[in-house]
Amino acid sequence: MIISLLMLFSSGALMFDSWQAVKGFDDCVIDAYKASETVDVGNGIEKLVYELKINECKDSLYQITGAQIPGGNYELSMRQKATAFLGPVSVFLGWAIVFLFALFLFNSATIVVPIEQIEISLSKPKAKPKRKKK
Description:
The chain is an all-alpha fold and about 130 residues long.
């Protein structure tokens, strides 16, 4: 039960982390564009800075969620957002089910396996009174 609770917390943290990564990807791309505008050296250096920052955003998203964005694309499609987020959500829900099952077992302290029904009386049988011999 303790392990399932720890895994539930761990998967919850991963779920929120992946949501932040997906939500913050667009801001990361905008920040990369702003950073490339501040570099005014010429010779295409600002384009190189922009591509490096974009690749940093893509690598960060891939490391957290596993979602890859093909080269030349600078935004997530709805399908990519869904697949990047639904994986951690399903893991979280799976551990929640395991935790609830462990909680039920812990509270009941018995496991009933309905293989064969046998009734065993737990009360002591009543003793017959002994007759006195004459």
